[in-house]
Each structure stands twice: as structure tokens, then as C-alpha cells.
Amino acid sequence: MASDADVIVVGAGLAGLVATYELTRAGRSVLLVEQENADNLGGQAHWSLGGLFLVDSPEQRRLGVRDSYELALRDWNSSAAFDRPEADHWPRCWAQAYVEFAAGEKRSYLRGLGMRFMPFVGWAERGGGTASSHGNSVPRFHFGWGTGPEIVRVFADRVREAERAGLVRIRYRHRVDELLTSDGVAHGVRGSVLRPSSERRGVASSREVVGEFEHHAQAVVITSGGIGGDQELVRRNWPSWLGRKPERMLTGVPAHVDGRMLDIGERAGASVVNRDRMWHYTEGITNWDPVWPEHGIRILPGPSAVWLDATGERLPAPYFPGFDNMGTLRHILGTGYDYTWFLLDQRILEKEFALSGSEQNPDLTDKSPRKLLSRVRKGAPGPVEAFKRHGVDFVVRDDLRDLVAGMNELTGESLLDPRAVRERVMARDAEIHRPYGKDMQVSAIRAARRFISDRAIRVATPHGLLDSGNGPLIAVRLRLLTRKTLGGLETNLDSQVMRPDGSAFEGLYAAGEVAGFGGGGVHGYNALEGTFLGGCVFSGRSAGRALARDLG
What we know:
Low-confidence stretches: none
CATH superfamily of the largest domain: FAD/NAD(P)-binding domain
CATH topology of the largest domain: FAD/NAD(P)-binding domain
Number of domains: 2
Mean pLDDT: 96
Helix content: 25-40%
Distance between the termini: 16 Å
Largest sheet: 8 strands, mixed
CATH class of the largest domain: Alpha Beta
Number of strands: 21
Number of helices: 18
């Protein structure tokens, strides 16, 4: 049968663009099929903050951060907690290879394409409280100048150049429904043409079928993303080790992140592993200006807010803002409620609150030095202030008793006792005002301020919430927020899909979130943050280079 291209790539997100770029730079032809319209080129990566995990970078060294491949690999393996002999075989291999990439060629590879990095480095996922537990031992979260749209652009521009040169054809509104195989070899896709859509990026589009298609190639690369846009699918795969399934969540990715290709790949004979590993956030707030259904935004908090559960109990150590995402999620689910509270004041809001996402950080996304200066001026960043004014999850009052009353009013439940909340806040404030104390969160705040990036732009000067002169008191209701799929199609280090019997699936490759960012779960049970975009780049690059090398 005639081939429509050397390779078919299913999904025009970041991993698909990277694989396509690597194939075309080697002179291979690509047919790129995507179920959404052209405005969605780049997929979920477009919406990201653009953080990238780098190890022993010039940015770290300039800030006095001493990092190494050995330390990063130890942190990765401690966090991943790989414990499945068969299902974790390839993820372990990918973990080592990815950390080598992050400590080696990753930065120069991206810079060679035009990507630039901010001089400050963030310290995400500070961990579970001991040297050998989950978490980053040092700051490794590098901010891409231009956020998610920029990392999409550096690959999309080259894919468009290849399209103009005739090496790439893109078929939008083409939804793959079946992988085509002969004698155990993948050679094409069959699917449905969806009604043309003019919806803007991220908006849920029509699923009306207006036609059919069938295309053939020497190989197929699946880069279709995870399951985070389908809450029912998330619940169906909910990890037993996290406890009960949440009844209510916000959705952190567009509706088209639907996980369809996982089942389609499995029906064709692919191995899918670690379905119960996923990464969802605990600091979600309802988007007051939503793009997709149940659209939630994640707060990227500094360490100073007091974190209370739904009943007013303070979350125990080490479940502080920004420290141990999955441990905190497990604890919250154990309370029997699906929401928690941040208590803070205007001073903390202005210094410590950031919002995840390219659209919530216009200074970084627009690459505007003038806008960036607003982060060191008095006042909250514009998007944060807009959420404080318009967001349904924010309660702002001048008095703590009134604040607690507003919190109870917001939820419709009288779970919070004003006297008990005051006692907890006063106890915390007393620790703030002592040079020494036993409050581990207060110790963490002081430790964070020893890092120059945190002290300059991320962590407020320690002070009591009930001290005067710090602006109104603020409570933020935090919801659980769906985000990343950590398991998926099992792949070897060439991104070739494996079969359940351990053999390679000839002609079939996978990259990005649909492959658990490599191997079917390179993160294990925990991510170190800044690792999702990089996982798409590394696995897409591996697929493209392997096929460019091996195709006839």
C-alpha cells in the first residue's frame, strides 16, 4: 500500500512538534494529525508557565546553588519511589537518561533553538522533610523567557518551515479512532474528520463527525497527551494509595486532553503501565474568566500562608505550601473534604502569590522587561489582584472574626470556629516573633529567605498575620485540580512502544504525556516539577531521532 508520509505523528502538542522537527531536519516526511484546530498547535504546553528542570546550570551557579547529576538522580529516585519490578523497568532507565539530559545537553539544545532563561531559579517541590525523601534538594526550576508559548514557538516555527518546504502536512480536526497494523507492525491510522471549528484555543470544540480518513506510513508516533481533561476517567484510574476519590475537582487542562489514544493503543496490542500514577494539584482556584469547562488555575505559593483544612485544623509538617504535593493531597483526602484554606494578608499576597500558566504571567509570556519590573514594585501582580477582586474562592476582610464568618458563608458550612482559628493564628504569630521556636513552617520560611531569589521576589519578610499595617486579611479556598498523567504507553529509550510480553511493537512509537513522559512513567509516584515540558522534549526528541536513524 502507498504511504502518505514516512511517519504519521498523532497529536500536535509539544512532544509531537519535537518529534516532527527531529524527523524533518533529517529529511523525513511527516503527516501530523490533530483533533483540534490550528489555534491549538502546541497543545497543553502553550498554557504552561514554561518551567524547566535543569541541573548544575549557569543560572544556578551564579546564584550560589551547588548541584550535580548525582544529587539530582538521587532526588529523582527518592521521589519516584519505583517499586514495580516489571512496570518500572523502563521508567527507571528513562529517569537516569533524563537526568543526564537535564545535567548535560538539555540547556544547550534549547538555547540553540532560540530559547532563553530568566536569571532567577525557583525552588519547587521542596520535599518531604528528610534528605532521602521526596523533593528537590536545591532550586532547579528554570523559567523560560516567554513561558509555554515560547517553548512551543521554537519548535513550531521549524515545523512550519518544514511544512513550507513540503516535508510536513498537518491535518487539523482529524481524530484518530484506530491504529492500523499488519503482521504485528503499525503502518497507519484510521479515524474521523470532525466538523471545522473556529473556537479559540482551549475552548471545548464540537465532536460532530463529517467524514472519515485513513493514512499509511512506515511508522506512527503517538503524542496525544494524558487524561486530565476527563474527570470521570481520572476517577476511574484513581490511585488506591491516595485514598478516597475526590467528589469535586477543578480541571487544569482543556477538555481535549481526553486520553483516547491510551485505549486505542492498548486495543492494538500496546502495553499500558502505571495507570494509577497521576499528578494533581492541591492549590486550585476557580478561574473567574474560564476558557474550558470547570477551568481551574493553580496558585504557586510562597511558604508563608497558614494552611488550614476544611475544619480549621492546620496541616501538619511537612505539608507546607510548595513542599510535598502528593503527600499533601493524600492528607487532604483523608480529612473527608475536597478543599482547604490559605490564610494570609495583603503583604504576603503581593510578595508570594503567583499563578501558574502563561496567560497569568503576561510579563514573562510577553518577554517584557517593563512589565517584569512590576514584580518588585508595591502591589500584587495584576492577574493575582484580579483573582482577589473577582475570584469566587477569595474572602477579604479587615478582621479575623469577620474573615472566618465569610469563609463559612462561602462554603455554606459552619465548620470553622472563629476562636479556634484565632488560637492557631496567634500561636503561629508568636513563633514568628521569637528568634527560636518549634514551628517547622516558620523555620522553613527563614530558610527560604537565605536563598537570594526567594528573598528578592518570592518570600515575604516574616511577620504576624495579626500584626497591623499589612493590609486586609485574605482567605483563599483551595480546590483539587486535575493535571498530569504519570503512567501511559510503555516505551524503550528510543520511544518505541512495548508489548505486554516485553517485545518492541514494530512501527509504533510514543512520546510526551501519553507515554508517562517516557517509559510509561518516568516520574514514578512524584514529580520534581519543571519536568513535564522537558519530558515532552526529551521523549519527542528520542522518537524523532530513532526513526530518522532507523527508517528505510
